[in-house]
């Protein structure tokens, strides 16, 4: 599986960052039928061909995902969509 790893620093604290990540996850889940589940400050997500997590810290958000070979051709589009949502929520 190919990987995606995107980190975004912030200065809004983990509580507000978690709210923003929840908005991102809802938008992506609705569009791409992704299942999500929080465990503490880690949002796990999955769908056929993609598994990953978003770790929310006091000063950083880290997105990590594994993408199957079958979806490798759209990896740049997935990365672009994640970055776009991070830009909207975290500037």
Structure commentary:
About 40% of the residues lie in helices and about 35% in strands. The longest helix is centred in the N-terminal third of the chain and has 20 residues, at about 15-30. The protein is of the alpha+beta class and about 90 residues long. The chain has one domain: Alpha-D-phosphohexomutase, C-terminal domain (TATA-Binding Protein, 2-Layer Sandwich). The protein has 2 helices and 5 strands. It has helices at about 15-30, 75-90, and strands at about 1-10, 35-40, 40-45, 50-55, 60-65. It is globular and about 35 Å long. A 5-stranded antiparallel beta sheet has the order 1-5-4-3-2, covered by helices on one side. It starts with a strand and ends with a helix.
List its traits.
about 90 residues; alpha+beta; TATA-Binding Protein; five-stranded antiparallel β-sheet; 2 helices; about 40% helix; globular
Describe what is shown at a glance.
Helix 1 packs antiparallel against helix 2. With 91 residues, this protein is an alpha+beta fold. The chain has helices spanning 13-32, 75-90, and strands at 2-9, 35-39, 42-47, 50-56, 60-67.
């Amino acid at each position: 599986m190919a990987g995606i790893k995107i980190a975004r620093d912030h200065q809004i604290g983990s509580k507000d960052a978690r709210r923003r990540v929840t908005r991102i996850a809802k938008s992506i889940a609705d569009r791409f039928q992704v299942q999500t589940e929080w465990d503490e400050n880690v949002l796990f997500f999955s769908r056929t061909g993609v598994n990953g997590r978003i770790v929310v810290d006091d000063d950083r958000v880290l997105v990590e995902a594994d993408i199957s070979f079958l979806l490798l051709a759209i990896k740049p589009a997935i990365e672009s969509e994640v970055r776009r949502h991070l830009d909207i929520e975290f500037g």
